[in-house]
């Protein structure tokens, strides 16, 4: 369970540091607007996304079991975070995240990191697509500039409320959102090594400001972002509160573990390396505890940002630490500038994130799987969107393991790790 940082330091060179520094700065430019957008979509203020990327991202790189993992807030948490805040308030989320961190520490010490192999692939695919659907639906209000206050958290009531607000659509906001989408897709395809989100969102936001377009910005909705990290603080703790939030804590811990380990697997294939799963789980535990104490959100390994780090030349955990420090410096020196980011542009960024999460290039392959796997994927997807993430994970994993035990008697082929 030795952190990868300690493994890489004895042979670390100036050339490696230069490559890591460039990669860290590059991925920070991607992480800043995405962290802000994820925090807003989660039902909290944008500063908490930056805090998570700084504190959680630094700890994950410092203590993690992957050479190139980049940590921070991710889209997978939006659904559960929004629900916890809506039901228990932000203090409830902080306590649930602290509990999740403790659960992850226990899991790491018990060396259960390798148990990811027992989570059925169809369940992972189903709730990932379902989360993408929920994230996308939550961006329609800002993307189209709809006037719809206090949207319900549930999918169907939310769609109904948005439909009733259709007469308030802001076509200027729609144009800004569409322009952001085109820029994000175009920059990704034409210049894959360039941190497209920061350029696309900055360009659209500057044009909107210069032309005085009537669209919401971060400043108009949330005020000026803070330029320093908050002082660490503990939430109010009681036995009743702990029991009330325990299910949410287990969901946060499960998502943090599975997404970070899947991300580490992807990174291994990109750099031909090998991560340490139990060290990674331990790092997720400490990162979530630290993020909660500083007033952040749940943190985990971010697949897209990790891939960006590798493509930009990052090869050791120092790149992830540079990424976190860069975000802190930007926050300290340029926090007011982030207030000009246009809300439709941030919504467009999350729409792209939701689309990428659903991995449409794999849909044809999913449909060629055995009937039981297809039904399990669809069931998990439907439960994620229409019921509850906790229910979806519990039912999906339980049913998936039952099917695997049944198929084991038929000498079914060995389960393989999803290629993400």
From TrEMBL:
| ATP-binding in keyword set | no
Does the entry feature the keyword Transmembrane, yes or no? yes
**What does the UniProt keyword field contain?**
Membrane, Transmembrane, Transmembrane helix
Q: Where does it localize?
A: Membrane
Name the principal localization, coarsely classed: membrane
Q: Which residues cross the membrane?
A: 12-40, 46-63, 92-110, 122-140, 168-187, 199-219, 245-267, 325-355, 375-403
What this protein is called in its record is SulP family inorganic anion transporter
Q: Which organism is it from?
A: Novosphingobium album
């Amino acid at each position: 369970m030795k952190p990868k940082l300690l493994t890489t330091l004895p042979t670390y060179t100036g050339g490696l540091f230069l490559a890591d520094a460039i990669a860290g700065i590059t991925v920070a430019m991607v992480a800043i607007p995405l962290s802000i957008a994820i925090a807003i979509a989660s039902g909290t203020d944008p500063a908490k996304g930056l805090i998570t990327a700084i504190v959680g991202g630094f700890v994950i790189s410092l203590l993690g079991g992957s050479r190139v993992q980049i940590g921070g807030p991710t889209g997978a948490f939006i659904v559960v975070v929004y629900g916890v805040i809506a039901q228990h308030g932000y203090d409830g989320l902080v306590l649930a995240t602290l509990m999740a961190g403790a659960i992850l520490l226990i899991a790491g010490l018990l060396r259960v990191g390798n148990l990811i192999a027992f989570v059925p692939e169809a369940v992972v695919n189903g709730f990932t697509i379902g989360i993408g659907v929920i994230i996308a639906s939550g961006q329609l209000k800002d993307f189209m500039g709809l006037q719809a206050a206090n949207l319900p958290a549930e999918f169907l009531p939310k769609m109904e409320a948005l439909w009733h607000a259709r007469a308030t659509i802001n076509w200027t906001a729609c144009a800004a959102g569409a322009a952001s989408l085109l820029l994000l897709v175009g920059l990704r395809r034409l210049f894959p090594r360039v941190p497209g989100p920061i350029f696309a969102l900055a360009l659209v936001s500057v044009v909107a400001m210069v032309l005085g377009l009537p669209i919401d910005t971060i400043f108009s909705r949330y005020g000026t972002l803070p330029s320093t990290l908050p002082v660490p603080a503990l939430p109010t703790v009681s036995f009743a509160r702990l029991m009330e939030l325990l299910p949410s804590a287990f969901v946060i811990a499960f998502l943090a573990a599975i997404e970070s380990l899947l991300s580490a697997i992807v990174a291994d294939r990109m750099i031909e390396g090998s991560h340490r799963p139990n060290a990674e789980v331990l790092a997720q535990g400490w990162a979530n505890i630290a993020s909660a104490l500083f007033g952040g959100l749940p943190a985990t390994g971010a697949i897209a940002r990790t891939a960006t780090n590798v493509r930009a030349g990052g090869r050791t955990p120092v790149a992830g630490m540079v990424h976190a420090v860069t975000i802190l410096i930007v926050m300290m020196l340029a926090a007011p500038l982030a207030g000009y980011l246009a809300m439709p542009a941030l919504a467009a960024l999350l729409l792209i994130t939701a689309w990428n999460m659903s991995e449409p290039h794999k849909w044809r392959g999913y449909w060629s799987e055995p009937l039981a796997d297809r039904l399990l994927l669809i069931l998990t997807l439907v439960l994620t969107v229409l019921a509850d993430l906790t229910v979806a994970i519990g039912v999906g994993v339980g049913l998936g393991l039952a099917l695997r035990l049944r198929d084991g008697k038929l000498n079914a082929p060995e389960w393989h790790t999803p290629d993400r």
